[in-house]
Amino acid sequence: MATKAVEQEEDRLFKSLTELADAHCHLDLIQDFSLIKKAISSGVQTIITDGVDTSSNMKALELADNKNIFAALGMDPEHIIKLPKSELEKTIEFNIGLMHQNTNRIIGIGEVGLDYKDDKWKGVASLQKKVLKRLIGTAMELDLPISVHSRNSLPDIFDILNEMNARRVHLHYFEGDEKEARLAVERGYMISVPPIESSKRKRVIAVTPINNLMAESDSPAVGKSPSDVETSARLIALIKGITFEEAAMELTRNTKEFFGIEKKKRSSLIRI
Ligand SMILES: [Zn+2]
To answer: Is residue 136 a part of any domain in this protein?
Structure first.
């Protein structure tokens, strides 16, 4: 078969698959790249990979093709806490510089946030908050959305976002209750659902309009690869009483709109 015919056939097969989007994962940590390729060819055509420190930010920039893989650059609390004091300021400066230099190549700032995993981590809450505020400030300055990590820290996250008047907010791996989900919706934030079922999560999905929902794999920490967003989308479909295809379509559209994916695709084509 001529190359063109093969391409057309591949195109046809591709289009018949249900399209999905992964709103949050860490591709730099997935050792087996064939898993990423497989996710894309089986329908997860939009993947947001989030950086958490200097090396993963560099890797995210390398992996992003702005066709299927899109990069967000961030600094997550875990890595900030673990940095030696003498390295802290220059590491933050370097990564904020990276965000400024690559504004046109990235789709967001993330992962950022607060993590009160235990008393030790909560004990350095003021350091975490200080860095988070700088990163939110950077995102607002660059007019980019943020992906926020909020383990055991949602009340403080809500306060900071409100204080800073941040508008383009994605609460990744949302662990709040229905009341917190309603507050997020009231403020126009997006909530994403990882591929793990819990009764609390089901209640949150039930009270959150589908327009405020996205699916994420958080792979390889939670899901194995971006393919696992299918589980999140199936859970949402079940709770919302819609078909998997309908849920996939809505969630994909939400993710693309929130992160400005189509615009990024077009601008990267023009650049080439
Ligand atoms: Zn993550």
So the answer is: yes
> 50 alpha carbon to ligand 1 midpoint, in Å?
7
Q: How many CB atoms lie within 10 A of CB 270?
A: 6
Residue 10 inside a domain? The answer is no
Q: Model confidence over 124-146: pLDDT tens digits?
A: 999 999 999 999 999 999 999 99
Q: Residue 11 C-alpha to ligand 1 middle, in angstroms?
A: 32
Nearest to 245 by CA among 79, 62, 19: 19
pTM: 0.92
In whole angstroms, what is the distance from residue 150 CA to residue 152 CA?
A: 6
Facing residues of 148 across strands? 112, 171
Residue 165 lies in a domain: yes
Place of tokens 């919302």: 240
Q: How far is the CA of 172 from the centre of ligand 1 (A)?
A: 8
Q: Which CATH number fits the domain that encloses residue 74?
A: 3.20.20.140
Taking only the tens place, the pLDDT of each residue in 74-97 is: 999 999 999 999 999 999 999 999
| Cα(218) to centroid(ligand 1), Å | 5
Containing 135, the helix (H) or strand (E) segment is helix 125-142
**Alpha-carbon gap, residue 121 to 3, rounded angstroms:** 56
Ligand 1 midpoint to CA 112 (Å): 9
Number of domains into which the chain is organized: 1
Q: Domain residues for 96?
A: 21-271
CB-based contacts of 140: which residues, under 8 Å, 6+ apart? 164, 166
Q: Which residues of the chain have pLDDT under 70?
A: 1-3, 6-16, 270-272
Asked, for residue 82, whether it belongs to a domain, the answer is: yes
Q: How far is the CA of 84 from the centre of ligand 1 (A)?
A: 22
Asked whether 27 and 36 are in contact (CB, 8 A), the reply is yes
